Amino acid sequence: MRTGLELGYRHIDTAQIYGNEAEVGQAIADSGVARDELFVTTKVWTENLGSGRVLPSLRESLQRLGLERVDLTLIHWPSPNDEIPVAQYLGELLEAKRQGLTAAIGVSNFTIAHLRQAIEAVGVDEIATNQVEIHPLLQNRKLVEFARQQGIHLTAYMPLAYGKVLAEPEIQRIAAAHGASPAQVALAWSLQQGYTVIPSSTKRENLAANLAAAELRLSTEDMAAIEALDRGERVANPGFAPRWD
After folding, report:
1. Which residues are catalytic?
2. Annotated binding residues, as ranges?
């Protein structure tokens, strides 16, 4: 993370379940980057969705991060088997916003059905984003269409599908034509659709190359060729995941 900040990254995405909030907070403190230049996101884990747990868990996250508030807090996953109503934990998260613990709230891994419940619970204007798996092999078209209709921004995680996208011959062909890397092509595809993209890497050269993907412009033909790669190949699918659209 320190390398990313040195290179110019300013969006930091962490979560309670990652177990690294304290390390993230220390890296922020050591970086010398002004707090108002950073956008810090964390996520509330499923075990903290129960009644009265959302706010205390977020306060614990803030303590670990060494911050007075984060810029965005997401519900990491819907409650497994929908045991806890969306309205309950999103209502508590909205209260956290009102108390100044987070500047904005949102959701992650929400299906269309869950988004409908979220909209009913807190209003569409309160849902800053739905962070979901999107990449050329899993384009999530039904969900994307619904989110766009509602005006809900999408954040694409695992945009390279743990490297699977990089091995696609069509991605490699487009990359060669642009003098770019396959990763840059995949990231540019997401960016040109208006998604926020959160790739991850531990290598400085990859971090720098990923950042440069914002400068790559793909043609209409390139975008269409990548669109044809969709085959519903999901990477993040734990046993407690919802029934996907």
Report:
1. 18
2. 76
